Amino acid sequence: MKASARNRFAGTVSAVREGAINTEVELTTAGGDIIVAVVTQASARSLELAVGKPAIALVKAPWVMILTEEGGIKLSARNRLAGTIRQLIKGAVNSDVVIALPGGSEVHAVVTNDAVADLGLKEGVAATALFKASHVILGVPA
């Protein structure tokens, strides 16, 4: 599958919770990371999402936020993937930040250079990637 999303998490559907309008789907990667997606019931039926089915979660890098300290902050973002910054590539305005996760996956985030400075981002620093479940696009093998 070719897609413009930098973040691709292959895994297996580990939970499906149907709601009145949307369906919440949990995908567990081989490394043990859990990605939560919210899709319409129509999409869940069309993709035939069920526990045990392989799937891929896609998340565009600009949709990923970075947190360096919890500090008692509560956020609505369901996906929180903690790791260590493996690479930081600075551009003229934005930077590409790559966070290595303990299970072997990586998360790419595109953030402003001001945010990089404010958060003290650099290689080796602990960081958490945050993104909303509604920003996850699910795909299944054809």
List the helices and strands and how they pair.
Blueprint lengths: L6 E12 L3 E8 L4 E7 H6 L7 E6 L5 E3 L11 E12 L3 E7 L5 E7 H7 L6 E6 L5 E3 L3
Antiparallel strand pairs: 1-2, 1-4, 2-3, 4-10, 5-9, 6-7, 6-9, 7-8
Describe the model.
The chain is mostly beta strands and 142 residues long. The protein has 2 domains: 61 residues, RNA polymerase II/Efflux pump adaptor protein, barrel-sandwich hybrid domain (OB fold (Dihydrolipoamide Acetyltransferase, E2P), Beta Barrel); 71 residues, OB fold (Dihydrolipoamide Acetyltransferase, E2P) (Beta Barrel), CATH 2.40.50.100. Helix content is 9%, strand content 50%. The chain contains 2 helices and 10 strands, in the order E-E-E-H-E-E-E-E-E-H-E-E. It has a 5-stranded antiparallel beta sheet. The radius of gyration is 16 Å and the shape is elongated. The termini are close together. The model has no long low-confidence stretch (mean pLDDT 94).
